[in-house]
Amino acid sequence: MTSEPVDDTATTTAPAQTPKRAGFTYAAGRFVISALARLIYRPRIEGRENVPLHGPVIFASNHLSFIDSLAIPVAAPRPVHFLAKSTYFEGTGVKGWISRTFFESIGAIPVRRGAGQAALDALDQQRQLLDDGFAVALYPEGTRSTDGRLYKGRTGVAFLALQSGAPVVPVGLIGTDKAMPVGAKMPSLSARITVRFGEPLDLSRHGAANSGRARRLATDEIMAAIHALSEQELANAYNEVPAHGAIEKIKQALPHERR
């Protein structure tokens, strides 16, 4: 499986299904997946005491592998929700049921991809989850690192934190790229994974969400905290999806705020 839940740069054209509580599928799935993960990978989990057990929380993590979206819910001491492409939930037959049940069991919420409002619509879905007191997980880099380096953060996570007032818990994942490298069909059973939760960050001192400077400063603080936990080499660049066509290449070359 090489697809991954939607990151903070994803787009959506339909509202997400906001969970009212962690249901049976999530509870049962989390129990089973956690037991298997602990048995197979013997993960080192550090800093669980840093995670607030109640109220809205944003987990901001480095992103190395598809299974990052398994590692965080398994290690966290409370339910965690992700936005995931709605196609994972819309399949038919046995394969569709397996996909739907799996993503529900890891706390994924379906959203539809589209154009137009782009990242703002996805952020609205996550804001709804936070307003309801849930925890959400996001990847500020926007997409997985294929070379193991930590890339510059995009400002969507900071925007969400400043707008909602939710604390940000930085997360450093180590070894998930060895457990399931990008492009791998099946995970390795010999890798050892470490999940580190840092102390919650109150980013409100940077200013309002509508300030570009505040978003940039808050993003840089988040990424510095992730770097301290993950100990990755810094790329000092954005992890850009390869541009297709002349217009997209020009857009990437021009200075702009990476949301």
From TrEMBL:
Gene Ontology molecular function, alphabetical: 1-acylglycerol-3-phosphate O-acyltransferase activity
Record has Plastid as a keyword: no
GO terms, biological process: phosphatidic acid biosynthetic process
CDD domains the record matches: LPLAT_AGPAT-like
Entries under SMART domains matching the protein: PlsC
GO cellular component terms given for this protein: plasma membrane
Phospholipid/glycerol acyltransferase domain segment(s): 57-176
Keyword line: Acyltransferase, Transferase
Annotated protein name in UniProt: 1-acyl-sn-glycerol-3-phosphate acyltransferase
Species of origin: Microbacterium keratanolyticum
